[in-house]
Amino acid sequence: MQVLTTQWDVHAAVRDWRRQADRIGFVPTMGNLHAGHMRLVQVAKQHCDKVVVSIYVNPMQFGAGEDFTRYPRTLEEDQAKLAPLNVDVVFVPNDQSMYPHGHQQTTYVDVPGLSIGLEGAQRPGHFRGVATVVNKLFNIVQPDVAVFGEKDFQQLLVIRRMVRDLDMPIEIIGEPTVRETDGLAMSSRNQYLSRQERQQAGGLYETLQYVRDRLQRNGVDFTDLEQDAVMRLEKQGFVPDYVAIRQSDTLEEPKSRTDPLVILAAVRLGKTRLLDNLRV
To answer: What is the pTM for the complete model shown?
Structure first.
């Protein structure tokens, strides 16, 4: 497993693989890896001959007052977890190489429509930062396949739209969320939870399941159900940012009960923000 820190070294590795007609898979991460990330790597390996994993905490996708400075950085532990999976390259760039003029002065990518509302409303500029850094990483790694988790559902749709709109020859695979035994979606930010908060946290997934079960009955009003879910979460000690029932392909409000649906939620529990979703 090679650990590379510059774009030029990655380009050189990719050129060698291309000469051998290898199919290249890519898993972009911010590090502090857990079992969910490991699953993404395994899926990439199933589809490709060579796999690159990037580890980079991207400042452009963090807003003022967010946890950029305290986001857990565990590079040595991450490399130890990736080694048994036979990852070919771990790409670990720094801010200077990714944003030579600073991330506030860089050319950016903005994905209209899907970036507005939900997480886009709660975290202005977040998806611009995500789309920009993923675009840059795609240009560096030049993958045939890239694998993302469905936990960040809106992010996945934003990336798919960017790839389609910019004619990138990349297959985007969305992998179902990996969960703890109580249903809590695995996330690097879960370690911010106190012991008591961790015991409460499974209530978010339970509420999503409750909403899904209610949706499968006739005559349920979507808005009433969203408000009901918010109240249930508040009673459990969560501070909800939103619970939203949307079309799963566009994130628009449902037009009929036959639309493929997804339930999305973001809540705060103490100082931790939790994100989750459930397809219907």
So the answer is: 0.95
